[in-house]
């Protein structure tokens, strides 16, 4: 049995995962071949890879304006989110947490589990029908509780909304709350300066910015010290045990380096694709709408467009029809493994279930022709049948 | 031409087999999909590759593919198994039995749980490195929920009597977990015949990639469940969330397939080289093999060279990449707790070397290693006053050293 071959196709699901950049793979390959040592070994084979890991840490710290010691490598964004939540709540003995119903499951389920076990009281910040957070409500929630853990994402993976994390961080500072922001969708796509932001935690997952799967990192502000999530070895200065995923870490740093190097150019390119997408859809399909703030250039990720299509018999077969036309997109978040339930984000916004929803998420590899092709396919499906 | 240094530290990590890398490569740039994407071929291809790897792994250890949970490595698997069982079976009891020679990933996790209210029994081992089955039996209580004993030791290679241990656990209604990181792919491991309920292992100890591991969780007789230690998308039957590391999983699968097809031939060749290395090094006076030679992994030997100073020894064998303790603790200068558990003095523990061979080790490399170690030990002893005293027949243990 061999896996099926890759058809000629249009990939618009980059919020789920991105293709690895061949330049990243080139950086990783020497560590899969000749430099294979265990970084904890004191001999030359070990020291060679130890140096690569520490250089990767420095690279990441440099881009974020963090200290290298504030960067810990993890197996991905989910582990980093879990680590920030469990680590700070348990180490600092926090009894109250604030999040929103629009967060990724890695945050939402983690906090819900802690609430269910009675470890914390969990509050949700109110939001409007476009997913704008009510920051006055956040201020009020933090004012009425003693020290809280706040976890609010930067860019929403489904609707693309960008939260004003600087403002949120300021509110958290005022109340002495610990602020974690899930930056999985913005890392490598936007610049982050942790000193200016003043937050306590943020995270990155390499495979969301053309790096490898299975590796991510947590920034943990040196102001806070947290207990490990995984025990058993002195790796990562005792905060994360386990032999390091050396090539993953090397690939992560390389991917971030490329992302920062080419960021303005890619931002411009993808932003233009998104604007073209919006304009062409509006021209071709009656009553097309956009979920959340995804059509607002300054308030949403330039990589994500969540399209709301008019009620139609086509909606049930929307993704299927796109697929037969070799277009890969997502109906909701791809992160709910094995389930076909609707998006919790769209439900929380109160979106009309009779309308179709589809997320197109773009990368530097997409082209204007692909956008036109996708719009043409959608236009065919939603073309008015002449009476 | 022999390339130096010679890598004989395959218990710390193994080089990746080129056949494994070959299998992984398409999944980086071409078949890059998220295995949880349900609506398009990129996702399906990734999922299919993951399912195929699950089958390759299941065939090696004789389990159902559904019983494999992918993790970031053995350390995470150890954490998930022990903490996951502790939380899931809290109603039944809080007692865990382990041994003093376990890997840190097990010991540190147990120590963490002790702080949360667990009662942990740490069984001693004999000078062979084996636990006593009678002591295990005596330690079992109605509150015992888990027995966790490693399959093969990372420092001395000693293989515990897994079938007898699992039978005792089963008899008393406890689950049996084994950290088999060093054993899977090196010796035949059969979770059914061995009576294993949970088992941790990783890719990079068997010529696969780093950053990927697995936890076997039995689904029948009994059906075992663990509480997830990371929440998120509910991947891996809810036991381990997070986007699957598809290329890593493909690599682990391929490594398992190669282990299954090549194990017999590899073992014959590797153990012959290991035996020759050991035989030759034991011709040095006052050198001793640590742990059982009978119940042992085929690629490991751990030898102490008495009257040789530890740091000098490591410097003296600079043409070899070997370990003087477990790789995970070798950055510290503490004597190995595993060797101490066998009854070795600090000095003797420090003067030990662990040789871990691989399928890529050659006879030529072993020839060189033999000469190199013999030369280093002989030279160090020539400079050692302790060796001189020993040769003069002075019983060093009878001397009372004065502080000065």
Account of the 3D structure:
The complex is a heterodimer of chains A (387) and B (404). The longest helix of chain A has 22 residues, at 263-284. In chain A, helix 1 (22-32) runs antiparallel to helix 8, helix 5 packs parallel to helix 6 and helix 9 (263-284) runs parallel beside helix 12 (368-382). Helices cover 39% and strands 12% of the residues of chain A. By secondary structure, chain A is of the alpha/beta class. A 7-stranded mixed β-sheet of chain A has the order 2-8-7-6-5-3-4, with helices on both faces. Chain B has 404 residues and is of the alpha/beta class. Chain B has 13 helices and 12 strands. In chain B, strand 3 (95-99), helix 5 and strand 4 (119-123) form a beta-alpha-beta unit. In chain B, helix 3 (41-61) packs parallel to helix 8 (246-281), helix 4 (74-88) packs parallel to helix 5 and helix 8 crosses helix 12 (363-382). The chains are: A alpha/beta (387), B alpha/beta (404). Chains A and B meet through helix 1, helix 2, helix 3, helix 4 and helix 8 of A and helix 3, helix 4, helix 5, helix 8 and strand 11 of B.
Top CATH class of the largest domain in chain A: Alpha Beta
Please give the alpha-carbon distance between the first and last residues of chain A.
50 Å
Number of strands of chain A: 12
User: In angstroms, what separates the terminal alpha carbons of chain B?
Assistant: 50 Å
Outline of chain B: globular
CATH fold-level assignment of the largest domain in chain A:
Aspartate Aminotransferase, domain 2
Helix/strand/pairing category of chain B: alpha/beta
Radius of gyration of chain A: 21 Å
Order of helices and strands of chain A: EHHEHEHEHEHEHEEHHEEHEHEH
- Average pLDDT reading of chain B: 94
Residue stretches of chain B low in confidence (pLDDT < 50, at least 5 long) are 326-330
Low-confidence segments of chain A, ≥5 residues, pLDDT <50? 1-7, 333-340
Placed side by side, the strands forming the largest sheet of chain A appear as: 2-8-7-6-5-3-4
Organism (chain A): Hymenobacter busanensis
Catalytic activity (chain A): (sulfur carrier)-H + L-cysteine = (sulfur carrier)-SH + L-alanine
Protein name (chain A): Cysteine desulfurase
Family (chain A): Belongs to the class-V pyridoxal-phosphate-dependent aminotransferase family. NifS/IscS subfamily.
């Amino acid at each position: 049995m061999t896996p099926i071959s890759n058809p000629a196709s249009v990939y618009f699901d980059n919020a789920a995962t991105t293709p690895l950049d061949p330049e990243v793979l080139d950086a990783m390959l020497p560590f899969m071949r000749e430099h294979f040592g265990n970084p904890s070994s004191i001999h030359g084979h070990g020291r060679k890879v130890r140096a690569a890991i520490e250089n990767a840490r420095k690279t990441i710290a440099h881009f974020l304006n963090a200290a290298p010691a504030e960067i810990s490598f993890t197996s991905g964004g989910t582990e980093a989110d879990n680590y920030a939540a469990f680590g700070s709540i348990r180490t600092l003995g926090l009894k109250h947490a604030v999040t929103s119903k629009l967060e990724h499951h890695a945050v939402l389920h983690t906090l819900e589990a802690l609430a269910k076990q009675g470890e914390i009281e969990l509050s949700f910040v109110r939001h409007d029908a476009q997913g704008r957070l009510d920051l006055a409500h956040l201020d009020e929630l933090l004012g009425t509780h003693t020290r809280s853990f706040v976890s609010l994402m930067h860019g929403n993976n489904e609707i693309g909304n960008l939260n004003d994390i600087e403002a949120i961080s300021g509110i958290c500072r005022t109340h002495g709350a610990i602020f974690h922001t899930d930056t999985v969708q913005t890392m490598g796509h936007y610049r982050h300066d942790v000193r200016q932001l003043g937050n306590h935690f943020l995270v990155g997952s390499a495979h969301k910015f053309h790096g490898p799967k299975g590796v991510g990192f947590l920034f943990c502000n040196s102001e806070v010290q947290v207990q490990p999530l995984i025990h058993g070895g002195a790796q990562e200065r005792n905060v994360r045990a386990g032999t390091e995923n050396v090539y993953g870490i090397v690939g992560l740093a390389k991917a971030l380096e490329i992302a920062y190097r080419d960021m303005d150019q890619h931002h411009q390119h993808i932003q233009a694709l998104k604007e073209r997408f919006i304009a062409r859809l509006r021209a071709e399909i009656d009553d097309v709408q956009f979920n959340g703030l995804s059509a607002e250039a300054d308030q949403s990720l330039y990589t994500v467009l969540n399209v709301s299509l008019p009620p139609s018999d086509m909606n049930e077969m929307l993704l299927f029809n796109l697929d037969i036309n070799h277009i890969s997109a997502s109906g909701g978040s791809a992160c709910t493994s094995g389930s076909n339930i609707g998006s919790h984000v769209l439900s929380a916004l109160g979106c009309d279930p009779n309308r179709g929803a589809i997320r197109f998420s773009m990368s530097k590899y997409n082209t204007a022709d692909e956008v036109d092709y996708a719009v043409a396919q959608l236009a065919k499906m939603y073309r008015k049948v002449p009476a | 031409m022999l390339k130096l240094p010679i890598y004989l530290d395959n218990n710390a990590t193994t080089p990746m087999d080129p056949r494994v890398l070959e299998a992984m490569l398409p999944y980086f740039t071409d078949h890059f999909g998220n295995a949880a994407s349900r609506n398009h071929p990129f996702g399906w291809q990734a999922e299919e590759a993951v399912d195929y790897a699950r089958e390759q792994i299941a065939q090696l250890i004789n389990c159902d593919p559904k019983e494999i949970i992918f993790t970031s490595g053995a350390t995470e698997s150890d954490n998930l198994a022990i903490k996951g069982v502790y939380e899931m079976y809290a109603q039944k009891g809080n007692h865990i039995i382990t041994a003093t020679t376990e890997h840190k990933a097990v010991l540190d996790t147990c120590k963490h749980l002790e702080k949360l209210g667990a009662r942990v029994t740490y069984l001693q081992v004999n000078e062979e490195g084996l636990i006593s089955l009678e002591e295990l039996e005596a330690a079992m209580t109605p509150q015992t929920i888990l027995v966790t004993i490693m399959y093969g030791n990372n420092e001395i290679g000693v293989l515990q009597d897994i079938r007898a241990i699992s039978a005792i656990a089963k008899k008393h209604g406890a689950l049996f977990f084994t950290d088999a990181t060093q054993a899977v792919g090196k010796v035949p491991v059969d979770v059914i015949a061995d009576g294993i309920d949970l088992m941790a292992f990783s890719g990079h100890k068997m010529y696969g990639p780093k950053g990927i591991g697995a936890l076997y969780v039995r689904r029948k007789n009994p059906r075992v469940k663990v509480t997830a230690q990371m929440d998120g998308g509910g991947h891996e039957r809810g036991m381990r969330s997070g986007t699957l590391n598809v290329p890593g999983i493909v690599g682990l699968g391929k490594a398992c397939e190669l282990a299954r097809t090549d194990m017999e031939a590899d073992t014959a060749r590797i153990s012959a080289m290991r035996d020759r290395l050991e035989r030759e090094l034991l011709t040095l006076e006052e050198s001793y093999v640590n742990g059982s030679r009978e119940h042992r992994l085929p690629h490991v030997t751990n030898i102490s060279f008495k009257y040789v100073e530890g740091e000098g020894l490591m410097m003296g064998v600079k043409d070899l990449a070997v370990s003087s303790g477990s790789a995970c603790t070798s950055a510290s200068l503490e004597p190995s707790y595993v060797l101490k558990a066998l009854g070795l003095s600090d000095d003797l523990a420090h003067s030990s070397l662990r040789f871990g061979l691989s399928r890529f080790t050659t006879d030529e490399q072993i020839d060189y290693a033999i000469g190199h170690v013999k030369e280093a030990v002989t030279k160090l002893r020539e400079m050692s006053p302790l060796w001189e005293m020993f040769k003069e027949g002075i019983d060093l243990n009878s001397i009372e050293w004065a502080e000065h």
